[in-house]
């Protein structure tokens, strides 16, 4: 879905809400850094242009915070929600893909299967929970079963932005969420490999405090995020 479709969908929502229930006031939101910066923030201007009385204050966090204690209206989260005090609206799903720069593949060749990764320099993600390095996640094409695979490499980072930069530099293979890689794949700066093994990951959800009457500004934000992630 392109930007025109996003705008059309938002205008349809605007007409449905009606003049008495137009989103207004300050909307306090929080989102993961990479997802927010790469997908949501670039489109926020469309939301505020539709609702001139709406003011958005966005913060970014990659660790779980207490949205109620922080006074937030809504938070975007990746993973299974665990706070029973909050309402949950699932808005998308993360997908894991493996990418590399054309320069890297020209020198090292393209892996044809997961076992080929032992012959490649794979950039690992430093994990702050569980094992020191997070495993890569795949789906077995013939069985449609998910599995994990530990990779080896000379570089390890804990930042999604750094992972993207390393992939673009040609220093190794990287496993990214689709929203991190899509712009670079479209430009040709990154190429996807092992596509048959790409796996779905955790859900993306918008969480908000329970309320009998959902505020128009929160409803508008939820529908907006759905449209952005479908784009």
From TrEMBL:
SUPFAM superfamilies: Periplasmic binding protein-like II. Residues 21-229 form the LysR substrate-binding domain. It comes from the Bacteria. This is LysR substrate-binding domain-containing protein. One of its GO terms (molecular function) is DNA-binding transcription factor activity. Belongs to the LysR transcriptional regulatory family. GO terms for biological process: DNA-templated transcription. Gene3D superfamilies: 3.40.190.290.
